[in-house]
Amino acid sequence: MSDVEIEFNVAVPMRDGTVLRADVYRPTGRGPWPVLVQRTPYDKRSPVGSRPFDTLLAVSRGYIVVQQDTRGRFASDGEWSPWTHEQTDGHDTVRWAAKLPGSNGTVGMFGASYTGNTSWMAAIDGPPELRAIVPQVTWSEPNDGLFMRGGALELGLNAWWTLFTGLGDLPRRLAGLDLVEAMGSLIADYDGLRERSYWELPTGRLPAIERFGGPDLGTQRALAAPETAEHARVAGRHHAVTTPSLIVTGWYDIFMQGALDNHIAMAKTGRPTKLLVGPWSHLENAIPGAVGETNFGLTSTQSAIAGQYSLSELQLRWFDHWLLVQNTGLLDEPPVKIFVMGTNTWRDENEWPLARAVDTPWFLRSDGRLSERAPGVDEDHDTYVYDPNDPVRTRGGALVMSVDYPAGPFDQAPVEQRPDVLVYTSDPLAHDLEVTGPVRVTLHAATDGPSTDWVVRLCDVDEHGVSRNITDGILRVNAPADTVGEHEIALWSTSNVFRAGHRLRVQVTSSNFPRWDRNPNTGEPPQTATTLRPAHQRIFHDATRASSITLPVVPSRA
Prior knowledge:
Layout: E1 4-13, E2 19-27, E3 33-40, H1 55-60, E4 64-69, H2 86-98, E5 103-112, H3 114-125, E6 130-136, E7 148-149, E8 152-153, H4 155-173, H5 176-191, H6 207-212, H7 218-224, H8 227-232, E9 245-252, H9 256-269, E10 273-281, E11 290-291, E12 294-295, H10 311-323, E13 336-340, E14 345-349, E15 358-364, E16 370-371, E17 382-386, H11 413-416, E18 422-425, E19 433-447, E20 451-461, E21 467-478, E22 485-498, E23 503-509, E24 535-540, E25 548-554
Parallel strand pairs: 3-4, 3-5, 5-6, 6-9, 9-10, 10-13
Antiparallel strand pairs: 1-2, 2-4, 7-8, 11-12, 13-14, 15-16, 15-25, 17-24, 18-23, 19-22, 19-24, 19-25, 20-21, 20-23
């Protein structure tokens, strides 16, 4: 079918009387058709909002597609209160969509990031017409990637996101000169994130957001109102979801681990779930195949997965199976497909994490060595000074924040040349080493203050000596000064083959700013802390305090 009918701003009444609005795209003809829904706070007509899914392709394949503005956003009525109403509004929208003229009564939901979370929230509430969801690049536990990570604030994401969404909120609250002045101030703070706004204190009540004067969003909202995290939380609620899920993420996505956790939890329930993990970051890349400074190849992209199909086509296969009850063969395929970096190949797997991966420790040693051999004799500890007035700057990683800080793998030379970054490097590898699964670090460390952060990063050093980041993590600790503690730091997950001749490298430091907020080393809460003090850090790697990184090594099939 070649024709599409579009109805703009169709009213969608919620149970409390608030009217949301949606654009409805439908095939010409009598139908009946299944309905696909995306609920977005980013403007239902914006190209950004439709990025993860080809609406016209879906309509040409016999689907009605609904693009809806969430409550308080753009054409929809009500107050913009992120996450608060998505469960009930999602339920009511699904039931409304199932009754649309021409609908066959079945509904699927799709979307990425916040809109992916709206799919989970509706599925948790369980409207009977919801038959399948495709949540992409979205979280599970909001305090592990959305609002916080390891106890530190996700400053880079939340300051940027609050100001970005504020551009659509101000015109709803102000008019005339007040709107012009407020918009000018917000834009100045948004454009000034790198040089000024990210640096302001206190980070838990960021002045740029206070000046905006809109609703408290993101981390600030979560700190002030813990129930915010509950509204956004998927973790611990998977038992309520009966809807089949196709979960999509990327190794350099800020919510990558949450997506993996969602798949693991759904697999444990025994309900149908599939997982796709590319080498992708959170936002679509401007250059096909390129993530950060690495070219993973054309068949790594969402438009040519394994050179066989696009992400939109894969989603439609999923919906064809559950909404059209067609045997697409999708469920006969292995439930997990991952992109293995280093060899830059796609591979099907029967589970995540991989049962055949073997946890293998590599130990931090003296003189900056990283070794498979544990220290057998006492070795002197390493030291550095962490000064929050001069933190280690963010360079790549699994993140999304202002455009000054792109995601992905980058040359780590500017980071590793700093005196406050300890570097531990292996000998060149004699054979390829595949690391696929969750990575964790055991760090024996002490600081001279009441609180500090430990940041650890795994890197791949090529034959030319270029070190590129693979995955990292942070842990905020509070303990009596000069107490040596044993700390477990989650570096989330990855899949990377360290090629023969390459070297493993581990960075240890105390900041990754402005991705994560700076620990002032005073013990004050982030809502009030404005005083910063240097901290003297000690990292131990002796016979009784062996610091190590544990890698999930996949044995060679050869």
